[in-house]
What does this fold into?
Amino acid sequence: MLKNIIHRKDKKTDANIYNEIARLNLAQRPKINLFSYFTVNEKSKTSAETALSFCENDEEKLAYLNNILSLIESSVHSTVNGDEMSRPSTEAEEMKFNDAVLEKFVQKLNLKQLEKFELLKDKDIKKFYDFIGPDFTWPSTSDVNERRAIYDYITDPRFQGQGEEIAINRLAYRRLIETGSLDSSKGKYVHIEHGKLVGYGSELSEEEYMELIKKNPGMLYSLIEQKVIRVRFSSTANLKEWQVNMRIRKKVDRNDVAIIKNVERDDENNLDFRLIMDSGAEVTIIPFFVRNKMKYDYGWDTIPIRFGGYGSNLDVFQVSVAWEVSLGDGIN
It folds into this structure.
C-alpha cells in the first residue's frame, strides 16, 4: 500500500521453508515432521517463511522451528489421547509468530521511544505493522515527536478517514527531504497527495487552501524550508495573574469552536496547563489536546515547525486557515 513513499532497505527475500529446513542442522525425523506439516498447512507455511526472514541467524531460526515441532508433538499427543483436538492446531503457532514478529518490529523501529507520550497498546502496534509493513524504516529527518504523530495518525480511531492519508504524505515529505529531492527554485511550497509529489507552489490564500483540502482531505501543502518559531516561556508567582478564558473559532466554520479555560486539565496525560496571555509573544500556542476539542481536524498544517530558543526540541503545528481568538468563553 505504501510502496510509492516508504523508504525500504534492500528487501529480504522471504526464506523458502523447505530449503531452510533442509539446510539447518535438524535430525532426519524432525525434518520429515516439518516437511509434512507445512505441506498440509499452507497458511502456517507462509507465516513461517515470513518469521524466518526476520530471524537474524540460524540459531534463531532453529529455535523458532523447534517451537513449531513442540506444538506439533503436543497436538499429536492430544489426538492420540482422544482430546477434542483432532489435527495440529495453528492458533498457538500464529500467536507465537505474531509475538516474535512484532517484538522484532518494535525493536527495529525503536517504538519504545514513543512511549514518552503514552504507552503503546499491542493492538495498535499490530495495526501499525499491518499498515506500514515489515520493511519500513523511519525517515532520518523525523524526530520522536513527529514519529509519534505519524503512529497516532495510523492507529488512533479519532483520525479515521484521513489519518492514514496524512501519515502517508508526511512520510513522503520527509523522504523527499532526506534524499534531497525537493527543488525550492520551483516554488517555496510543496504539494503532496497519496504519497506522491504533485507539484510546487507559492503561498495560498485561505480560499485556495480550503478548496484544495476539500478535494483531498489529508493532503500536504507545506513550506520546503521550514521557519523556526521563537517562543518565550513565562511564569508568575501569583498563579491568578494574567489568567483568562479564551475562545478560538474557525472563520470559515463559525460553529467549530473550542473554549480554553484558564486552567486546562489533560486527564489522559495527567497534566495541567495554565493559559497566560503574553502581549509580547510572537504566537499564541494552545496544547495539542485542546485542538482535539475541535469538531473537524482541518485548519492546521500537518508538518510541524520546530521551536527555537527555550522551546527547542518541541514542535508546533501552525494554523492554515484564519481563526478568531477572543477573551472569555462567550458567556463572561
Remarks:
- Confidence is low (pLDDT under 50) at residues 1-14, 76-88, 228-242.
- The CA atoms of residues 29 and 35 lie 10 Å apart.
